[in-house]
Each structure stands twice: as C-alpha cells, then as structure tokens.
Amino acid sequence: MLKDKNILLGITGGIAAYKSPSIASILRKKQAKVKAVMTPAACEFITPLTMQTMTSNVVHVDMFNQMMDMDVEHVELAKWADIIVIAPASANTIAKLANGICDNLLTTVLMASRSKILLAPAMNTYMLKSAANMHNMNILKSRGVKILSTQSDILACNDVGEGKMLEPAEIVEAIERELTEKDLSGKKVVVTAGPTVEAIDPVRFLSNHSSGKMGYALAKRAKYRGAEVTLISGPTSITPPNVDNFIRITSTHDMFKAVEANFDKCDVLIKAAAPADFRPKNTSEEKIKKEKNALNTIELEENPDIAKHFGSIKKDQIIVGFAAESIDEIEHGLEKLKKKNFDIIVINNIKQKGAGFKGDTNIASIVDRNKNIEKLQKMDKEELADIILNRVVNLL
Ligand code: PMT
Fold first, then answer.
1. Distance (Å, rounded) from C-alpha 42 to C-alpha 47?
2. How many angstroms does the Cα of residue 279 sit away from the middle of ligand 1?
3. Ligand 1 atom 20: the closest Cα is on which residue?
4. Contact (CB, 8 A) for 219 and 193
5. What burial letters (b/e) apply to 134-163, b meaning 16+ CB within 10 Å?
6. Taking the alpha carbons of 121, 123, 124, 129 in that order, is the dihedral positive or negative?
7. Cα 271 to ligand 1 centre (Å)
8. Would you give the end-to-end CA distance of the chain in angstroms?
9. Contacts 24+ apart (CB under 8 A), 288-296
10. What pLDDT is attached to residue 67?
11. What pLDDT score was predicted for residue 79?
12. Pairing, β 83-89 against β 116-121
C-alpha cells in the first residue's frame, strides 16, 4: 500500500524527534521511499546522520546548500513528495506554515508544495491549547492540512496532559489512510471476522483457530478506502481496527442476528469469519463434573449457515465468501460459491504453510461466478484484503 510512495518526512525541533527515525524505519519496511528534511532546531535533538541511515537518502537541512545535486532544492523536494509528513510538528513550524513564513528549508518546501500535508503535533499542553496555536491549526485545517491528535500522558516537561506525539505506527497508519484512494466512498460494507464460540458449560466450549486477522484486515482496508464499515467479530485477542460500527458477538447464532440487523442496508457483505457449524444441543448452566463421564459424548446440533441464508435472500448486495479447505480446495470452493450464492469466493488451503488461520499472511485463490480462477502468491493479509476489495469495486 505504501510501496514506491514518495514520503517527505519533515522533522522540527522537539524531543519527540527521537521517534522520527522509527517512523522512517516503518515506512521503509513498507517499501515506501523516504526523504527527510530537518529544521536547524531538529538537529539539536537528533543528527542528520541518524536520519540519513534510516532513510538511505541524503538528509536536507541547509537552505543554501551549494553541493546539492538538485535544480532548485525546495521546489524539487516539494514536487517529489506524494505526501509531506511533519513529525514532530512544533508550535513554531505550525505558526510559520499558517502564516506563509519561509525561513528555513522545511517551511520553504511546505510553501512550494501541492501535495497532501500531514502534521503530527508535539508540544506542551498549554502551548497546544494556546489561542495562537489553536488559531493557526484551524487556519491550516481550513486549507486541507490534516492534523493528527496527540496523546495525553506525562510530557517531557513533567506536566500531565495532551501534547505527546502519536506513536510511529499510528503516524504511519495515518499516512496510509491519507494516501489510499477512496474508491469505496458512499458504500456500506459489513465484514464478519474471527471464530464463534459455542458453550458446553461455563468453562468449556467448541471453537476454531481463527484469529480474526483476515477479517480485520478487510475491515481496515475497506475503511481506509472510504467505506462505512460494520465489523462483526467473534472473540479475538487482537485490537479491532477503527471502523464505524464494531459488534462483538460470541456464538454463530449471535453472528447471524448481527448480520441480519445490518444486511438490508449494506452494499457488500464479506464473510471472512469461521463460524462454528455445530453447537452442543444442551449447554449446562453448571460446570460438568468429569467424574460422571458426562463429557464422553457431546450431542451436537447444526448452527445456521449465515452465508447461505443471506446468499439466498440477497438483492443488490455483493457477497464475498471464504472457503477454508484442506483438500481439493478449488473444487470444494466452487461448490460453496454456487451453493451459498456468492459473487466471489476466496479459497485458502489451511494446511499450506503461510495460509489460513492465525498468521499475518495468506495464500488464496479468488474465484468468480464465471469460474475465473486467480491463484495468488503468499502475501500479507492486508495486501490480500486490497486485492479482494479491488474485485468488489469492479463489481460495484
Ligand atoms: O481469522 P484468521 O486467523 O486470519 O484466519 C482466516 C480464515 C482462515 C478464518 C479465513 O481466511 C477463512 O477462510 N474464513 C472462512 C472460514 C470458514 O468458515 O470456511 P467454511 O469453508 O467453513 O465456510 C464457507 C463460508 O461460509 C465462509 O465465508 C464462512 O464465513 C461461511 N459460514 C460458514 C459456516 C456457517 N455456519 N455460517 C457461515 O456463514
């Protein structure tokens, strides 16, 4: 998603500059190209050499650098950037940007820029909330500059309150969000994720290995692409992405009800969850004692097939199903596509290394109603989510 994107990282004078190398590092792991511009004050906190090492690029500090191999340095840098991210953004640089002051290389690049600008402020609470800074930030927001929130914590000055810069991973997420085309804007997407859990007694249950990662990746990317996202999730231990409507459920029956409440108004239903197909016929209110051999046999009854039900009543909705198979995956996947009336099905062989449950990667084949089969290589679940969503956009 950030592969080959040109990201200009501006660093201003503040203690949070110690986090700027981590931002560059995460961006480069995501295969973005990063160049850093530092104000003279930033160089008091970290060295240009640190940023040069982390970006693998020359660091730009000096406004009048005779040696730089660029026509007009500030204009070239401004043109190069897909996005300019100032992290940390000091009150001083925010004020200069709001008032068109260009007294160092960074503020001059900002003045020459036509790309997106994202600021990650970092300062003392009183400076952040000061009338002057609020006024300056409002001016910038009205010009389309995106300003991230700050964290509330003990600050470097020992005051407690707002003003701590967001963490590098959060800033990189914001960059990804800004650079993602909003091609699902105006669409309502419902994603189911994770396992469902069927109680045997207050202690024991039936479930499966789903971690929720595949479904959460789909919900996150759909949200980044501008959709209004409802995420219906079984019990998981991972942090849910920021979506419009997060519904936590436990059993397959709960998941059915949650989908039912959201199906009519949705444009797309993505069934990445692994609902339990069966539940114990009787759930004991009390813990079953093992001495009585009561657990030797558990009588099961079938759960509703959520996907099949909504496939059979769908109107204009697009339904993306998944198939978790361990053998003859394409054949079984095709049967499910037909039986559950999916528009496309994503088939993963859960026995393949790097595919299916728990991991960050998946290996999938995407099959449509015309039986066109696209076999994909092993990739990150977020990357796969984007490929699936590209298909959805084409169908919409
Ligand atoms: O969560 P992760 O750890 O990231 O793992 C990802 C995953 C392996 C769970 C995911 O990639 C996946 O394959 N999800 C579907 C799992 C599954 O239940 O497959 P299935 O072949 O049993 O079901 C076919 C389809 O019917 C699925 O879309 C499923 O959500 C749906 N279904 C199944 C049973 C049921 N009672 N109701 C359903 O809606």
1. 8
2. 16
3. 323
4. yes
5. eebbeebeeeebbbbebeeeebeeeeebbb
6. negative
7. 7
8. 22
9. 288/200, 288/201, 288/204, 295/200, 295/204
10. 57
11. 87
12. parallel
Instruction: Look at residue 116 and tell me whether its pLDDT is greater than 80.
Output: yes
Token pair for 341? 């009336």
Q: Which residues contact 134 (CB under 8 A, 6 or more apart)?
A: none
Residue 189: partners with Cβ closer than 8 Å, 6 or more residues away: 219, 222, 227, 228, 229, 230, 266, 267, 268, 269, 270, 392
Which among 51, 67, 65 has a CA at the least distance from the CA of 12? 51
Half-sphere exposure at residue 383, Cβ-oriented, CA atoms within 13 angstroms: 15
Residue 59, H or E segment: none
Cβ of 195 below 6 Å from ligand 1: no
Letter for the amino acid at 294?
A: A
Confidence class for position 66, pLDDT limits 50, 70, 90: low
The ligand 1 atom nearest the CA atom of 212 = 1
**Residue 266 annotated to the active site:** no
pLDDT band at 64; cut points 50, 70, 90? confident
Token representation of residue 318 = 């697009």
Task: Look at the block and give the residue holding tokens 């977020």.
Answer: 382
Residue 252 in contact with ligand 1 by CB distance below 6 A: yes
Q: What angle do CA 196, 199, 201 make, to 5 degrees?
A: 165
Ligand 1 binding pocket includes 322 (Cβ within 6 Å) = yes
> Who contacts 325 (Cβ-Cβ below 8 Å, separation ≥6)?
332, 333, 347, 348, 349, 350
Which residue's entry shows tokens 């997106």? 116
Question: Is 90 exceeded by the pLDDT of residue 290?
Answer: no
Residue to substitute in 255, 259, 260, 322 for testing ligand 1 pocket (most ligand atoms within 8 angstroms of CB): 322
pLDDT at residue 385 in the model: 97
Please tell me the distance from the alpha carbon of residue 193 to that of residue 248, in angstroms, as a whole number. 10
Chain center to CA of 288? 42
For residue 322, give every residue at least 6 positions away whose Cβ sits within 8 Å of its Cβ, in sequence order, or none: 214, 271, 272, 345, 346, 347, 348
Assess contact for 356 and 208: CB atoms under 8 A: no
Confidence at residue 395, expressed as pLDDT on a 0 to 100 scale: 93
pLDDT digits (tens, 9 = 90+) for 90-107: 999 999 999 999 999 999
Token output for 8: 């200009």
